[in-house]
């Protein structure tokens, strides 16, 4: 699950409001902070939160907050409140929940 050698994408709804580095940071968090630490399903959820005007990523699993990852990036109210990362086995996609029918 979430093999970094597989194709990775972000949906238009995500790309249109989030800077590249904030999207790349999602992949970094999965590869370096979640893999091997938490059991991951093929769907990972993050809430994007304002932490003193900086973007933080709340990792949500089974509808509960598991971990919060702070970032150096400024928070923007245009960011989606929640993003999901889906792994089909061949490709991985960052999207908003309504884009993947959740």
Gyration radius, rounded:
13 Å
Percent in strands? 35-45%
How confident overall, as mean pLDDT? 96
Number of helices: 2
Order of helices and strands: EHHEEEEE
The structure class reads alpha+beta
**Unreliable runs:** none
| Main sheet attributes: strand count, strand direction, barrel closure | 6 strands, mixed
Apparent shape? globular
Keywords:
single chain, 102 residues, alpha+beta, six-stranded mixed sheet, 2 helices, globular
Characterise the protein shown here:
This protein is 19% helix and 42% strand. It contains two helices and six strands; from the N terminus they run E-H-H-E-E-E-E-E. It has helices spanning 12-15, 20-34; strands at residues 7-10, 43-51, 54-61, 64-74, 82-87, 91-95. The radius of gyration is 13 Å and the shape is globular.
What can be said about this structure in brief?
With 102 residues, the protein is α+β, with helices and mostly antiparallel strands. The chain has 2 helices and 6 strands.
Task: Present the secondary structure layout.
Elements: E1 7-10, H1 12-15, H2 20-34, E2 43-51, E3 54-61, E4 64-74, E5 82-87, E6 91-95
